[in-house]
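The passage that follows is intended for readers who have already worked through the single-chain material. We present the inputs for a multi-component assembly, then the predicted structure in tokenized form, and finally a short commentary. You are encouraged to pause after the input and sketch how you expect the pieces to fit together before reading on.
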Amino acid sequence: MTTDTIARPEQRPAPRRRERASSHRQTRATTVTGLLLLAPAIIAVLGLAIIPILLVARNSFAESNVYGGITGGFTLENYAHLLDPVYAKVLGYSLGMALLNTVVCLAVGYVVSYYIVSRPPTRQSLLLLLIIVPFWIDFLVRTFAWISVLGRGGPVFGVLDALGVDTAQLSLVPSQGAVVMGLLYAFLPTAIFPIYASMRAIDPSVKEAAADLGCGWWQTHFRVLMPLSSTGIVAAAMLTFIPTLGVFVIPVLLGGGKDQLVGNLIVTLYTEFRNQPMGAAVSMMLLVLMLLAMAVAGLIARRGRKKVA
Amino acid sequence: MDRVTSWIARLVLVFLYVPIVAVIVYSFNAASGGYRWTGFSFRWYGELFGDTALLQTLATSAVVGVLAASVATVIGLLAAIGLVRYPVKGSGVVLGAIVLPLIVPEIVLGVALLSVFSFLHVPLGILTLVLGHLIITLPLTTLIMVGAFRTLDPSLIEAAADLGCTPWRTFTRVLFPLMRSSIIAAWLLAFTVSLGNIVISTFVSGVGSTTMPLRVYSLLKSGLTPELNALGTLLIVLTFVVVLSVGIQQMRRILASPSGPAPAPERTTAPR
Amino acid sequence: MKRTALIAVAAVAALGLSACSSGSGGSSAASTQLNIYAWADEIPKSVIAAFEKETGITVTVDTFDANETMISKLAAGSAGYDIVEPSQYAVQQLVGQDLVEKLDHSKITGLDNLGKKFADPSYDPGNEYSVPWIWGTTGLAYNEKCTGKAIDSWDALWDPAYKGKIYMLDNMLSAYIPALQVNGLKATSTSEKDIEKATQSLLDQKPLLAGYNSSNYSDLLASGDACVAEAYGGSAIAKVTAANPDVKFVIPKEGGTLWVDGFAVAKGAPHADAAYKWLNFTLRPEIAAMATNDGGSATANDAAKADITDKTMLESVAVYPTDEQLKDSEFIVDPGKALQYFQQGWTKVKAS
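Having made your guess, compare it with the prediction:
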């Protein structure tokens, strides 16, 4: 009885054999259906992503004139410039910040998703709405609100002063801490929603079964719930890590603009430095790096799934 | 421990609303900038209603947001079903391609899209804005729904098929109700991302189709006016009014789905 | 029958041709639309309303956050704008990338209303491509309560006494202005050695800096979070100094610099005739004066000074510095090939 309620197909040996037999019969039909379902996505991606990216790739080998235009030609100079150690520093800082943000967002996102899933269904949608509505207020307005809350004339300093803390040299904003907090704030919905979507699909009796079988709280989470919602967690990680690299407003407004992230670098290259080809080169490098990372992550995930079976 | 997580979650919700409370409070601040409180005033609400340019951009943002989110959710749902239920050779590559726009920095993608649109003589406007927003929200919706779908118990679908449901009926009677919350979550997130998008919008917007965050961003040099706080406050108040007026009862009817795969007693009809 | 058919075909062809020609930019018919791409808050609503009333042309104004965004957008594709409002150095870039039309001076009246500084400026000799609209300076803003004394030199941005409360503008060319001038060099220098010296100054300054900020530095000064900041002179800082007597704006003794935002006609503008109407309209003294009266900015139009209603504006350093205060100020122009030295320096500074 209890085995039926576990959601993982790999843990049910009998149907797999049946599946294989039937899937043989339906292969062509399944392929056609599959392709049809994927068609709109493929068209959209081809026209709106692949072709522009090919353009960017082409530009990364182009030359730029002093006024910022792109003048055809072919040169590897842009990539050669990337070998300058200064760029390694920017990349290192960005990767570190992205990793930190992802870990923090995943931790907080997981806890919040778990909380929401444990509420009655109507409450869940309400909570989702509650979480998302603040983000309909313009991003800059929210960021400046944080600046006024954390700034010298704001309530936090007011409380600290009342408590007698010496605030003369204290600066909450701009600061590295403010950047981390700002990033967490900005990416919370993107971390919560995918994990929630995955957790939602888990049969609630799984949790009961785990408890029945003697799992403690931590074990239930680490051995049962997390692996089951792993697709959602991985999705949340991807949706947090990669875009954090491209962020450029938060480090400027909340961090004082003293530390450059890759996002700042690319925007500067495109605008102030009028060097689109070099900006394109940095983007292509980032792209290749991320694709490699995703491929590696995919391999690990596949091996992990085989292990569960 | 569950109690601890509940409290952490509630704290996070409070954290989410700290700047919102600040926005609401400052929308009534008589001072025109800075954070000193100089007195209560409705002045910014008056200025907001007189600022037709800003309200126009709000309308544009809303329209683009709804369109982009809806299209992205539909395409993402179809793709998710395709990727999980009917995997073809190379599905991994397709998923990677869908996620690709996430990896490209927005300014790079924005400029490239503009070049492509310009080459094809596509007139810039709502259409190009929707297309631009579509490509960056598609990864979100697809990933969310793949995540939900993959965690779903596939035996439910098989059971429905075994009981004689056509694929279409399986979709409408079994799949859709189970995925409903995830679909809504995906749509909400896509809409939010579209509403807040600045960089891609800068390049693919046409004359007169400025979105709201674009307008606000261009005010950075001259200073954000507090009427934006008034706008934010109204937005929050409006949403809560709508939610409350629709009522908990209505929401229960609209949004209720069985909590995940049906608990054991309801599955007595499934074959063993 | 054949004759009527022929006449019918000829009529349709004629209609078709005329439809085609009017679609391609209104060469015969006058335009009823004007598309402007400008800085936010620099064209007062009153100016647009007056223009619309007088000419019946509907004006759409889109706004950008920085010159570079505007240039990137124009360069990447035909964005459909008629009038753009670049800053002075951006004019040179637009000309270099062939994104703006050469102005036909025979169609423009009122260019002699412009102040001496702005007629035939270094960045656009003969005003061949742009018509200046408003101008301002890049100078020093400080909170007197915080500094304890009056400030008059870029030195203050390097003063360790204000450590952690110093802000510089987050713009490469703007940040190099104090760095060059504090070393006694010209802000318009293109010498590699000069730029290297300035870069070293910026590197020395970074540990003392609270941040690079081009947006809310005036709020930070008002609250005391900042003591000194490099600031753009203009309507934004003028408002703050008026509201907060502790905050002051000065042109440093090393000179500071001038900026000018003007109108140019985008290449391939769909409503070129409306664009010229706009140029003529804004050159009128009573209209140019609205930039000050309603917008709080300094107009480049000398003849307009008589129409300015709030005379205190004419005395405000933040809006209308005197020629005496400006004697060492210059326009920042496009550095041309020297840009690479600035870039190398700026990248080093930002990464340090």
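Commentary: The domain at 76-308 of chain A is CATH 1.10.3720.10 (MetI-like fold). Chain A has one domain: 76-308. How closely did your sketch match?
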